Amino acid sequence: MSIPIDPKRHWERVYLSTAPAGVSWFEPVPEPSLALIAATGLGPGAAVLDVGGGASTLVDHMVGAGSQDLTVLDIAPAALKLAQTRLGQQAAKVTWIEGDILSFNPTRRYALWHDRAVLHFLTESAEQERYLSTLRAALQSAGHVILATFGPQGPTRCSGLPVLRHSPDSLGKLLGPRFTLRRSSLELHPTPGGQIQQFTYGWWQAAEQAAPAGRAGGPLSWTGGSSPSFPSPSRAPRGFPVPPGRDWVAPE
Fold this sequence. Notes:
This protein is α/β, with parallel strands linked by helices and 252 residues long. The chain contains six helices and nine strands, in the order ααβαβαββαβββαββ. The strands form two sheets. A seven-stranded mixed β-sheet has the order 3-2-1-4-5-9-8, sandwiched between helices. The protein has a two-stranded antiparallel sheet with strand order 6-7.
């Protein structure tokens, strides 16, 4: 019989005992995520939620690119503190939320939900449904979702915990028919320890929601930032910059 894990205590211990650059998921530059964020065409004023962002360097690059409405949520206060210390005065440009995604109750909506390496730790269907319920509650009409999990040939455990490996198809089935896959890829991530881990990356866009009663004929209003401009197949988006070496490709 397995002993129940206290998630907050577990991840707090990880970040108090291991330097950020020493954890297996560390990326000096999160190129796959940055490329997908750029491809959405969202501008700097769009509201972005980085789920499980913790000590990730994504926040550094987003702030550096001019993001004006970025929120980072993580269960481990030690992870958030590491990122805040690294950013220094720039940390004031970010909203920081200490919390578990499974008990998070969003009070606003976001144009982009980004999650690298949280969802694959949710191995029970009830956990996955709670995650998806929160995602749906937090996402704006026609909003974007970027998910990254271990791929079909990725590890079966991480940081001492079991994980679920995913393909773009399995992630799409979790999200459901209201989400359209815009792009996906399998990425090979080199860990600080010299191992290679396969990740599945995907970008989905939610369907536009119908207007509430009394507002027939128009989409839901955008909140927490300017309305994003979506990419045209004939040009690169005028939003966040594409990382070097990753040319923008129009979604199919």
